Amino acid sequence: MEKQYDLIIIGSGPAGLTAAIYAQRAMLDTLVIEKEMMSGGQVVNTYEVDNYPGLKGINGFDMAVKFRSHAEELGAVFSEDEVTGVEREEGGYVVRCASHSYRTRTVLLASGASHRKLGVPGEERLAGKGVSYCATCDGAFFRGKTAAVIGGGDVAVEDAIFLARMCRKVYVIHRREELRAAKSLQERLFAQPNVEMVWNTVAESVNGDEKVESLTLRNKVTGEVSTLETDGVFIAVGITPSSEIFRGLAKQDEQGYIQAGEDCRTSAPGVFAAGDVRTKQLRQIVTAAADGANAVASVERYLLEG
Ligand code: NAP
Question: Does a structural domain hold residue 262?
Fold first, then answer.
């Protein structure tokens, strides 16, 4: 019979990698499964991280590499594979992947979250042709051009600040007249001379034949419909948990976040959830890392309880 791990960690963002570090130190026989290198990591696409203690201003990719090498130096074992489902079996779980199945006593769901779609006409058709969900990945294509960022959270504001460095003009289109983003980010945004705020406004469609040419906008207060010419549209309207394949395994809330408290225990015995995929108040790198540590402490306790 195939070997049974103590713990399988699904995802290798800050939560999964911190859990891997703690699991190595706890001498648990652990495997980390990742779709691609640092698959669970939105941090990889973050230009600058300014609020992680001791690493002020670090580039997101460099930070992810640091997390990963720390886990690797402690002997963490990684497998690049796509998880298709997790099933219960006598004494544990079977984690089914595209190319292999693994047996384990406990599972940590640390699959993170991905960008949410806006759901307007033209968005899907023009994705990759001017519509983007990642400013640090695609911003360079818009050097000297015009870009519009849609959203008012941390990601939208960080994206706009990043784009303002290279674009001729950046519009930030937000559905209210107050941003959700951290005040310090807002200050930096408002200091950019080439950024223009478009308040109380929603995008009704993304327009263009071969590539993005304009946005149709509607002012929510006046009802006025207008056209904004732009070369790029960066959509940053929040995240959605990567939890679809775990439906039926452990309880989720109405948005699909896996229900678990600070101890990361889910409704299923031996299944834990950490990072952005878990129900929580604040989704940050530091809280994801904290989850990774807490989750492994709970895994150890669970294994001892036997
Ligand atoms: P977020 O905080 O949920 O913000 C989403 C923004 O998009 C909000 O301003 C929201 O408007 C707007 N929005 C949502 N649906 C919309 C729609 N259909 N049409 C138009 N606008 C829409 O998401 P996020 O900025 O992606 O951040 C995700 C999480 O990561 C957050 O918890 C954030 O704090 C965290 N994060 C932190 C940092 C950092 O600390 N440096 C950096 C990046 C991300 P309303 O404001 O009106 O709801």
Answer: yes
- Pairing between β-strand 92-97 and β-strand 101-109 as defined by DSSP bridges: antiparallel
Residue 121 within any structural domain of the chain: no
> How many domains are contained in the chain?
2
Nearest protein CA to atom 18 of ligand 1, as residue: 118
| Last residue of one domain, picked from the residues 235, 252, 268 | 235
CA 156 to ligand 1 centroid distance, Å: 7
Is 97 considered catalytic here?
no
Residue 286 is part of a domain; what is its CATH number? 3.50.50.60
DSSP state of 6: E
In a domain, residue 82? The reply is: yes
Is 12 found in the same domain as 79? yes
Look at residue 111 in the predicted model and tell me its pLDDT. Answer: 96
The answer to whether the predicted template modeling score (pTM) of the entire model surpasses 0.85 is yes
Distance (Å, rounded) from C-alpha 290 to C-alpha 281?
13
pLDDT, tens only, 18-48: 999 999 999 999 999 999 876 657 888 888 8
Which of 185, 207, 235 is the C-terminal boundary of a domain? 235
Q: How far is the CA of 237 from the centre of ligand 1 (A)?
A: 5
In a domain, residue 126? The reply is no
Q: Is 167 a catalytic residue?
A: no
Go through 47-86 and write b for each residue having 16 or more CB atoms within 10 A of its CB, e for each that does not.
bebeebeeeeebbbbebbeebbeebbeeebebeebebeeb
- Are 131 and 147 in contact, with CB atoms under 8 Å apart? no
Strands (E), the chain: 4-10, 30-34, 78-80, 83-89, 92-97, 101-109, 113-115, 131-132, 146-150, 169-173, 195-198, 201-207, 214-219, 225-229, 232-235, 239-241, 271-273
134 is catalytic: yes
* pLDDT greater than 80 at residue 2: yes
116 CA distance to ligand 1 middle (Å): 10
